[in-house]
TrEMBL record:
GO process terms (BP): cell division; regulation of cell shape
Protein name per Swiss-Prot or TrEMBL: Cell cycle protein
Transmembrane segments: 20-38, 50-67, 73-93, 114-132, 144-174, 181-200, 270-290, 302-323, 335-357
Keyword Glycoprotein: no
Recorded GO CC terms: cell division site; plasma membrane
PANTHER family: CELL CYCLE PROTEIN, PEPTIDOGLYCAN GLYCOSYLTRANSFERASE MRDB
UniProt superkingdom: Bacteria
Alphabetic keyword roster: Cell shape, Membrane, Transmembrane, Transmembrane helix
GO molecular function, one term: lipid-linked peptidoglycan transporter activity
Membrane topology: Multi-pass membrane protein
Main location: membrane
Subcellular location: Membrane
Length: 364
């Protein structure tokens, strides 16, 4: 069958998108190679980061070959497999950094949550392809989202936050009435401080509130945030230079290669480098939004909204926590933080978005 009529003036490929991704990936490689000098960090993290880029090329190549229709056909199977893996962490999950949501097989360890994010971004557009058709149509997306959310929230509050923002972005792209969305936000705003927060464990409550005044527990819960802001401030306008970060290299900044990688980058590259990273994330989100508007089909628009919700929220939350502007939730910085499962998942998700964009005019 002939392809859909293309939008006039809109090219099939957009080289700006992979260029922005490559620049953020370069920032991550530069930062991780520098932080590897810290005595509290595994010196092999840079090699692992390079390995992650290479491994991500394999599934991205498969997606590029498969094309849009085959990818969507795979969505239900990927979703079921991801749910099964996430559920298995309750039985065979290993405790890594205080969270029993990792699967460890020999030298390999990964978070099923990363695969579950991708599966939701891919499967929700399939079940929502008919569009919003009244309140009764909500059952389809919620039937897919709630099992995943229920498995994640019990073990990983930060991961559950990411899934929630992804789902909210997807519902907006689905064209739900705005007052439905505002009512849901109001309900969450009332329920969280009155019902959810009091039932959290003390250390969870502290992590969610310590950013408001980290010096009230400067040697305890507030230590990480304080050291992060010191590292960012010490970078000045132009930074201390590559591999010259004293705060991160001397072990003062905890998790300098993951949770606080933005502080490590800012210390060495200064205010200019810190703003440059913010600009790159803004451009990435802008292109994802543009790719959605340039795609004629609703399922594709929903998929781009999910990717935008995930990447945008993780970037804002991670950077905000590093600057003591938002709660510390352990969410990684996309494409920059060290970690095989996170890096591969993010690259594959962005690769998926680019393949869907490439095939947006193809007839089903």
């Amino acid at each position: 069958m002939p392809p859909l009529a293309t939008l006039e003036g809109v090219p099939k490929f957009d080289l700006r998108f992979p260029l922005i991704v490559a620049l953020l990936l370069l920032v991550g490689l530069v930062t991780v190679s520098s932080v590897a000098l810290s005595p509290r960090v595994d010196p092999g993290i840079f090699t692992k980061q390079l390995l992650g880029v290479g491994l991500a090329a394999i599934p991205i190549g498969v997606l590029w070959w498969a094309g849009r229709d085959r990818i969507y056909a795979l969505a239900p199977w990927l979703y079921g497999f991801a749910l099964l893996l996430q559920a298995s962490t309750f039985v065979i999950g290993k405790d890594v950094n205080g969270q029993q949501n990792w699967i460890v097989i020999g030298p390999l360890q990964f978070q099923p949550l990363e695969l579950l994010k991708l599966a939701l971004i891919l499967f929700l557009p399939v079940v929502m392809r008919a569009g919003y058709r009244g309140v009764a149509s909500y059952w389809r997306p919620f039937a897919v989202f709630l099992p995943a959310f229920g498995l994640v929230v019990a073990q990983d509050f930060g991961g559950a936050m990411v899934l929630s923002v992804m789902f909210a972005a997807i519902l907006l792209a689905w064209r739900i009435p705005l007052w439905h969305f505002l009512l849901a936000v109001l309900a969450v705003g009332i329920a969280f401080p009155t019902v959810v927060f009091p039932h959290l464990k003390p250390y969870q409550q502290a992590r969610l509130t310590i950013f408001l005044d980290p010096y009230r527990d400067a040697r305890g819960q507030g230590y990480q945030v304080i050291q992060s802001t010191i590292a960012v401030g010490s970078g000045g306008m132009m930074g201390k230079g590559y591999k010259q970060g004293t705060q991160s290299h001397n072990g003062f900044v905890p998790e300098a290669h993951t949770d606080f990688v933005y502080a490590s980058w800012s210390e060495e590259q200064g205010f200019v480098g810190a703003v440059a990273v913010l600009a790159l994330y803004a451009l990435l989100c802008w292109r994802l939004a543009g790719m959605a508007t340039e795609s004629p089909r609703l399922p594709d628009q929903i998929l781009f909204a999910g990717v935008l919700g995930q990447i945008g929220f993780q970037a804002v939350e991670n950077i905000g926590a590093s600057l003591s502007l938002l709660p510390l939730t352990g969410i990684t910085l996309p494409l920059i933080s060290s970690g095989l499962s996170s890096l591969i998942s993010t690259l594959v998700t962005l690769g998926l978005a680019y393949v869907i964009y490439r095939d947006r005019f193809e007839q089903i």
